[in-house]
Amino acid sequence: MPKQRTAFRLSCILLLLPLILPGIAAAEQRPSIGLALGSGGAAGLAHIRMLQVFDELQIKPDRIAGTSIGAIIGALYAAGLDAAAIKKIFDRFAGSELDVLTQLMQPSAQLDLGDLIDIDIANGALFDSSGFLEFLAEQISARTFEELKIPLEIIATDYWTGETIVLQDGDLFTAIKASMAVPGLFTPVNQGDRLLIDGGTANPLPYDRLLEGHDIVVAVDVSGSRNRSDDKEIGWKDLVFSTFEIMQQSIIMQKLQKQRPTIYIKPDISGIRMLHFNRIETILEQSGPAADTLKAKLAQGIAK
Question: Does position 174 have pLDDT exceeding 80, yes or no?
Answer without folding.
Answer: yes
